[in-house]
Queue: 2 jobs
Job 1
Amino acid sequence: MALIVQKYGGTSVGNTERIRNVAKRVAAYRADGDQVVVVVSAMSGVTDGLIRLAKEITPLPSEREMDVLLATGEQQTIALTAIALQTLNVPAVSLTGAQAGIVTDGVHTKAKIQNISPAEVHRLLDEGNVVIVAGFQGQSFSGQITTLGRGGSDLTAIALAAALKADLCQIYTDVDGVYTADPRLVPNARKLPEISYDEMLELAGSGAKVMQLRSVEFAKKFDVVFEVRSSLNDHPGTIVKEETSSMEDVVVRGVSLDKNQAKLTLFGVRDEPGRAARIFRGLADANINVDMIVQNVSHEGGIRQTDISFTVDKPDLLKARQVIDGLKPEIGFKESVADESIGKVSIVGVGMRSHSGVAAKMFDTLAQAGVNIEMISTSEIKVSVVIAADKGDLAMRALHHAFLE
Amino acid sequence: MALIVQKYGGTSVGNTERIRNVAKRVAAYRADGDQVVVVVSAMSGVTDGLIRLAKEITPLPSEREMDVLLATGEQQTIALTAIALQTLNVPAVSLTGAQAGIVTDGVHTKAKIQNISPAEVHRLLDEGNVVIVAGFQGQSFSGQITTLGRGGSDLTAIALAAALKADLCQIYTDVDGVYTADPRLVPNARKLPEISYDEMLELAGSGAKVMQLRSVEFAKKFDVVFEVRSSLNDHPGTIVKEETSSMEDVVVRGVSLDKNQAKLTLFGVRDEPGRAARIFRGLADANINVDMIVQNVSHEGGIRQTDISFTVDKPDLLKARQVIDGLKPEIGFKESVADESIGKVSIVGVGMRSHSGVAAKMFDTLAQAGVNIEMISTSEIKVSVVIAADKGDLAMRALHHAFLE
């Protein structure tokens, strides 16, 4: 008898027909003798509808009240899922985040899980119930309703799996698993049977949309092995786990493309200590997340000058530019140039650590495909390049062919 | 500085525009220096939509899970109302029933309030907040989400007013107050400035739709004076309170018509001890509420026989007939006849106690209007008669003219 935590996203519970299908799947596991904890998101569209209502009142609703409002979405799904299971004669009990013992800090709309008291869940499981827990939500120490922010339901599932010492954690979604590349862009992409936490993190951070970074980080920290799989079929998915020695045999695990970044270049920044720090402190203070940074040193006339380029999420570009232009007197650059037509292509694999020449092969492949590289950034298990946006698909296919076929 | 509890029903918070209007009204009271606790229902349509979702899964969803599901409706309204108040720069905090300290028994879908711990509400009020409490819901001793059943939000408001020792409790609805008769049926109907709990109870029990009986009973038990008034204008409403001596000067406070009853007559019941008890125990066991009962004694041949008539809510008629026909061998009656085309007209007033001849005047008025009386039932402050359904409006107008104009 295994203890399994299953998480179903908004699409998988998007209407009562799908909720019934989820119930059938859960019932099948239970018929095999497993104990099952089910974590569900709000039905797709519900959260957006609630946000729309709040925005009808004010563009800036209070975060505490948004948590009270949005937490109702998952609460509706847990009740409907429990009802669907009971209709299949499977004993089931729903629990809100608070009732499931999920305690968070008090940072509304992006609370962090502090602690899970799984006694109630264990008690209900031991009584023979399937336990349905509302994802995305918790309760602060002072009894306030909190939500965990984007990807929060994945986090709930993984944190519960850790607290319950579950044998298996399954993240059900609308894709079959983690692929070597986005199959819509690369027809030859293959589903990966397994991937390491670090590879998953680098892929997610490089534009692959399967899961939010924080859930994978949490799984890594607490060593929770989980499987990403589809709620639409019974195919095995991708197991995400700690790196094994055999994983290093594969140099590149996957290729990803991030079209959601924009590039800002400051030309003629005086090359003195503290200038770069001033730029990026300013951006950080404005809560703008900077991804890649490249600095080239150059001489011009008698003053040492440099050009600094960096990338930010596209929606932050305008704000970033305002911050930068506001700092112009202080930083002392000549001009700033923004470029929204970029794509970031990355290759990821733990095997890179023990294989040399990976970056060279990447650059060579891109050159042969006629793709110009604008920026380069590397980590231990990843190489990312910024290229022109309209070359993104071509670059992906070329790299996938070179490394993964 | 007064402490006011205001309750707004589903129509009053039916969309964000109306929620903004509620916020403006609350803000005006607060600007006058009052402390305000606001109790809200689910936005109109929300509860029905959730019930529809559950019924898509099964016609008989579990009551525990229905409570989890339906409680989200009021939770959405509290958040949106708090956001609307904050937008008017009024500090406001929303609380679920559980957070507001509303403790109930564990009878799902029709829980009874056991206890209210108002400490958190007081603390938030003392900090200068308007406190928005979700109506209709509470939490059982074991931490389960419960709902209070029909009219539950009124009950929440009145119970909170009692627990907080509020100076005033206002029940906002879509009518201006309690009328001498339904203005749609009786054009001369007048709004009553005040009414006693007992009169309100008799009117509500006689078909007037203003409030559920249990909320009025609760208010009477805990001596909570409340005002029924409209959320659409600023007219004073009707104050509902303990009877005063001056109230007895008015013989009849109001006239009501209940078209939702049906009559069952059992002909030829043997007139022996225990027969009537057997009938009505059978109906009670089937959870059928019987309103009026009339028994006429008669002789026929050598065996003492009687006819027994009683009324039930129309939706219960079929079930009542099945119960009765199932008991036929045991009760020994000749035949049962159902009549759905009836109306119950009642006159209500505490002044009846000290004024004689009220019933006689009622019967006389109906006779002059050509209305035949089928059944009669009286209480200390009410006389009800069953008449043909199509004579209901005529009877109402005649009685209103005779007693109230």
Job 2
Amino acid sequence: MNKSIVLLSGGLDSSTTLYFAKSKGYSCHCLIFDYGQRHKKEIAAAKLIARASECPLEVVQIALPWKGSALLDKAIQLPKNQKLGRTGIPPTYVPARNIIFLSFAASYAEAIGARHIFIGANAVDYSGYPDCRPDFMRAYQAMLAKGLKAGVQGKGIQVETPLIHLSKAQIVRLARKLGVPTEKTWSCYQGGAKPCGVCDSCRLREKGFNSVNSVRPTLTRTNLQKRSSGQPK
Amino acid sequence: MNKSIVLLSGGLDSSTTLYFAKSKGYSCHCLIFDYGQRHKKEIAAAKLIARASECPLEVVQIALPWKGSALLDKAIQLPKNQKLGRTGIPPTYVPARNIIFLSFAASYAEAIGARHIFIGANAVDYSGYPDCRPDFMRAYQAMLAKGLKAGVQGKGIQVETPLIHLSKAQIVRLARKLGVPTEKTWSCYQGGAKPCGVCDSCRLREKGFNSVNSVRPTLTRTNLQKRSSGQPK
């Protein structure tokens, strides 16, 4: 079966990407990072999603000794109620985050003989991150072709970005069509009992669900505690 | 002062690269990885070198859940007394190793405002690793320009490879000229009391020192224990 690595973050986009890859017949190996982010709720959500999709999940521990982002450093304020679609790179940008995540995915792919890496990056309703744009993904792909054993042997590893040109509304529709259990996903940058509703990630998610006149599904603490036992490794 | 990140492995090449960067006036921030390699002796050696050069060193912990290399998995035999200069990728290749290491260096560089990453990759007397070639380094550089905040803001981060076109003999001469304390470096893939002398890394090192009629300096266990207290963080 065609093996793939799926970068999972527990949010709507990466979960939809996982279900998309599954729908295309890939055997998916999920990867998430415990990298000192503000909260661990996204890891718990990723475990729920991986279990629901019956795919294995690896949690990679990374101790980043430096900060430089509102997602790593609680002393930096998270932006609230910002205008969506604004330009500029927000303080939630983590230096080289997707570059690091994709590099582990490439290593994992080579180690298990997978030829595809799926990432739920999105360049339409994105938050201004340079490492979510098609230009970057093409450059990453070109770099892998030069630096990996698989690359120089002509069996390249492809970076797949099925959501990159979709709006949040289109992602919500795709998630519905694929049967993604969106109530298990967590998008909020905060790790509270309920999503804060004012961070960029909450507002983009809300915009998506509002656009398709759908109730915004919420991963509650009770739901999380009830379902998080017996998670896939 | 012009800040730079130096990927240090405790071996001859990366140590020479550090001293080279220092000689060019860079303020060097060294980086080494504890990634489940066969032995920790290279980390101890890197600490000695960082201390000798009076540069700070960060040790980044990475728990790679997969194997796929003789440097990660003791069940895979290390090649012994192989012909140097042979073609093909040896079993000591670690999937995406330099891709991962450079990605952390890029993150660190952005976090502290450094504009240069030094890596001691060498494509002349190399062991067949695809991620040590100039082609790969150029592609990595191009990818950073697209994926980093610094890149899209036009303040690109440069990957510097001062040793890439040098032979081992030329590296040994450069190390001498720069005053690198080569007796503190460790190149052997094994972590024994003395270098094994038969792995690719030992043989390349020996070739370099023999070419310039120099005694091969050796980091002994006694030397290591004596000097490893009070290492730089």
